[in-house]
């Protein structure tokens, strides 16, 4: 009888061991694989949903691709991939004729790498008289006019919007070409020429402008220095010669 009990206990123990080993070696890995497969399926479904949303957006954008191409063409005319000075000189001639001035001189200098604009630090305003304490209170009285002027300058500086910069525009792909122009005509016509120069097809930034009057004719000679800009084609090796 005792021997039978031992056999029964041994058989039960063996069955338990087989069941545990079967779970560890067979069922548990399969369950883990099933969970991983389900997680991967959910990930793929999420990615598919995102891709479908992107596809819808791309289809909507493609419908307006002609408008985008027209906009790009206009921007490329404003900031071309090369100096394109002959076309710009032609625009200047047309503009001079329109505003009834004579374009007497055009000088184009070597291109310069673009220098990103850095916002100036905010100016500190000197404390008012009542804010002084200790040794500062014993110092000489603060000039009220100077303090008011400093406060006005600080307020004016704060009112100026911060420059807009783009990390995609760098000294490696954006260059400025200095130009100098001289025009002759009536003072009002010279002014309208300068205004039109900054609103033409080509992006132009006027840096200086001065006039000198001719006593005999009553006309003025306007001298203008400015920059025109070039956004280099990333496939180009270097900027072509401006001369």
From TrEMBL:
<dbReference type="GO" id="GO:0043107">
    <property type="term" value="P:type IV pilus-dependent motility"/>
</dbReference>
<dbReference type="Pfam" id="PF04350">
    <property type="entry name" value="PilO"/>
</dbReference>
<protein>
    <submittedName>
        <fullName>Tfp pilus assembly protein PilO</fullName>
    </submittedName>
</protein>
<feature type="transmembrane region" description="Helical">
    <location>
        <begin position="6"/>
        <end position="25"/>
    </location>
</feature>
<keyword id="KW-1133">Transmembrane helix</keyword>
<keyword id="KW-0175">Coiled coil</keyword>
<dbReference type="InterPro" id="IPR007445">
    <property type="entry name" value="PilO"/>
</dbReference>
<keyword id="KW-0812">Transmembrane</keyword>
<keyword id="KW-0472">Membrane</keyword>
<dbReference type="GO" id="GO:0043683">
    <property type="term" value="P:type IV pilus assembly"/>
</dbReference>
<dbReference type="InterPro" id="IPR014717">
    <property type="entry name" value="Transl_elong_EF1B/ribsomal_bS6"/>
</dbReference>
<feature type="coiled-coil region">
    <location>
        <begin position="34"/>
        <end position="78"/>
    </location>
</feature>
């Amino acid at each position: 009888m005792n021997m039978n009990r031992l056999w029964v206990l041994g058989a039960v123990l063996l069955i338990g061991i087989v069941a545990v080993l079967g779970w560890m070696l067979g069922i548990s890995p399969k369950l883990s694989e099933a969970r991983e497969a389900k997680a991967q399926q959910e990930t793929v479904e999420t990615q598919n949903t995102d891709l479908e949303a992107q596809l819808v957006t791309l289809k909507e954008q493609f419908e307006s691709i002609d408008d985008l191409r027209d906009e790009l063409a206009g921007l490329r005319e404003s900031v071309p991939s090369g100096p394109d000075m002959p076309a710009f000189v032609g625009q200047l001639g047309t503009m001079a004729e329109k505003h009834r001035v004579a374009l007497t001189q055009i000088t184009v200098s070597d291109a310069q790498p673009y220098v990103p604009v850095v916002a100036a630090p905010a100016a500190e305003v000197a404390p008012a008289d009542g804010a002084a304490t200790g040794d500062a209170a014993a110092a000489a009285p603060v000039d009220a006019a100077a303090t008011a002027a400093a406060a006005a300058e600080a307020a004016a500086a704060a009112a100026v919007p911060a420059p807009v910069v783009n990390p995609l525009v760098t000294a490696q792909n954006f260059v400025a070409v200095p130009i100098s122009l001289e025009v002759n005509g009536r003072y009002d016509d010279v002014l309208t020429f300068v205004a039109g120069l900054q609103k033409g097809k080509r992006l132009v930034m006027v840096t200086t402008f001065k006039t000198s009057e001719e006593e005999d004719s009553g006309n003025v000679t306007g001298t203008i220095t400015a920059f025109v800009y070039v956004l280099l084609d990333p496939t180009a090796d270097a900027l072509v010669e401006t001369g």
